[in-house]
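[agent] plan:
  1. take the single chain provided in the ticket
  2. run structure prediction with default settings
  3. attach structure tokens to the ticket
  4. add a short note for the reviewer (M.T.)
[agent] executing step 1
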Amino acid sequence: MAKKISGLVIVLLLMAGMSVISTWAFFIDVEASSSNVLTAGTLDLKTDDQDGVSQTLIATNMRRGDIVGPEKITLKNSGSLTSSSIDISFSYIEDDSTPNPIDMSADDTASFITVTILKYDEANILTHIDDHNSNGYIDVYDLATTSNLTGLPGITSGATRDFEIAVQLNENVTGQYQSDGIDITMTFSLKQ
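[agent] step 2 finished; step 3 output follows
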């Protein structure tokens, strides 16, 4: 009986050893190829033919109903690779004037700046934005809180696409917002 068990143990050890050796050989198998070429390329986004991927929307001394825009930003891929997509994001910071009798927050101010035009390559992308603050219209607050402006069509190497935006100070804004302001930044990111 002991001979049978020791014989089985030896057979099992041999089988285990062979499987380890064959697995090891499989993982270290090296092949050479002289016809493969690896080339690195670049994505280089320019906005209005300038370096930098951000632009600021400037709107000062707006009154109820005033419209700024449409402002056009030309996006150019100056790199050697075609981008698969582009992402657009928005942010803002408070930039109040003086005197400022009642200090409203940047979020409050952004919710009264209605977005009337939002286009990328002539396509209306305003329809991609949800009314996050549920005030009945798309505003700058909604732009800054959306994640729906990702994966837009990319830009071929050397080509341009236009981005357009227009905003309007809502007719329902109250005097509490006098001298309250925000700086709106648009950031564009090419993806490979």
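[agent] step 4 note for reviewer: Strands lie at 45-47, 50-51, 54-57, 67-77, 85-94, 113-120, 123-124, 152-153, 160-169, 182-191.
[agent] ticket updated
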